[in-house]
Amino acid sequence: MREKEVPFEVFEVDLKAKQSEFLRISPAGKVPVLVDGTTKVWESMVINEYLEERYAGPNLLGDSPGQRAEVRTAILELNSTYYQPLAKLAAMLYYGRERRDDKRIQRQLDLWDSYLDCLDEHFCDREWYALGHFTLADINLYTMVRVSQGFGIGIDGAKRKQLQSWLKRMESRDSVKRSAPASIPAAAELGH
What we know:
By secondary structure, the protein is mainly alpha-helical. It has helices spanning about 20-25, 45-55, 65-80, 85-95, 100-120, 135-150, 160-170, 175-180; strands at about 35, 40. It has two domains: about 1-60, Glutaredoxin (3-Layer(aba) Sandwich); about 65-185, Glutathione S-transferase Yfyf (Class Pi), Chain A, domain 2. A hairpin with a 2-residue loop joins strand 1 (about 35) and strand 2 (about 40). The two termini are about 35 Å apart.
């Protein structure tokens, strides 16, 4: 929304005790949720595509069907495959949906750490995740990297120089500066 300069208000949701006014908007309790007039949209990818179609501003999905397919495929791969270690960590450490198991936690941390190495290679010959310019795929990946920092997985600039360069490009964007939280709670602070 900041990329397209769409004005908005934020409603903070307590994920452990979702407020009744939020549940009236999102009965399944899904976050994030976007309310635009009478339209209610949830799921990050759907929200992003809705905003892309609804509002003018920079094209973040691609100009042609082929480009849009490339960005959508990148986002689906990020969400369905690569994000899984972080989702499992969240289920164990934050939401309590899965039994905390130190071996499983370490395995998920190791999987994500390996993926960060793959990302570093990915950025060896490109500045952005898809299409050669900033897209919704970069926004999606940025949120994943920031969440991983909450689990104590940093981006070691000496080890992952290309990924660190991409992260700096992301964090230099005005929209990211205005949107990104100053800090993310560490998994150790989550109390499970």
